[in-house]
Amino acid sequence: MNLILLGLPGAGKGTQAASIVDEYGVPHISTGDMFREAIKSETELGKEANSYIEKGELVPDEVTNGIVKERLEENDVKENGFLLDGYPRTLNQAEVLNENLSSAGLEVDGVIYIKVDTDVLMERLTGRIICADCGATYHKLFNPPKVEDTCGQCGGKEFYQREDDKPETVKRRIEINESLTNDLLNYYSDPDLIITVNGLGTPDEVFKEVKEKIDKLKASL
């Protein structure tokens, strides 16, 4: 099976990706993992990607597209398919992916979209707090300190939020990703291709729905 995994930040893509890989044995292709591997292997594309990453800049589409193309040509993909996670992120990437798959005689079988309302995502992503004394991480709702306002590791009383976790930053990040994701959902608009999953349950509950829908897709291939 050749699958794409979509979802906004905080939707639980990473958790579901791990479960899908464990259940179906498809190679998990994550752009972050690929960048790290290409940089470690010192491929030409890896060196180019690293030149942007070291400066804190976004890796251009053409570099990302090239690294993904290289990965899709490996034997495990040819034998077992793939689960693309974090790619495509833009329409350009989706179009290039389609061209690369077509030239290899492949196609996307399903696009799994983990849907979670933005207010829930805000709640999930802005709740992280960090102990200023020892760096222990908590979540205001899902993993609060056992004693209110007191770090369970060191007894510290001061907590802070990373810039990435502050509401205004998270809101902007969600808005940008929501626009990009909507573009991709429109691009993959075939109802037989899109697999929408409710991401509001526990990880196990969400995966139960994911599995049911993948099994149904698999039976139809």
From TrEMBL:
Pfam families: ADK (PF00406), ADK_lid (PF05191). Pathway: Purine metabolism; AMP biosynthesis via salvage pathway; AMP from ADP: step 1/1. Its main location: cytoplasm. This is Adenylate kinase. Its EC number is 2.7.4.3. It is found in: Cytoplasm. GO terms for cellular component: cytoplasm. It comes from Atopococcus tabaci. GO terms for biological process: AMP salvage. GO terms for molecular function: AMP kinase activity; ATP binding; zinc ion binding. Zn(2+) binds at C131, C134, C151, C154. Keywords: ATP-binding, Cytoplasm, Kinase, Metal-binding, Nucleotide biosynthesis, Nucleotide-binding, Transferase, Zinc. Catalyzes the reversible transfer of the terminal phosphate group between ATP and AMP. Plays an important role in cellular energy homeostasis and in adenine nucleotide metabolism. Residues 30-59 are annotated as: NMP. Residues 128-164 form the Adenylate kinase active site lid domain. Monomer. ATP binds at G10, A11, G12, K13, G14, T15, R128, T137, Y138, G201.
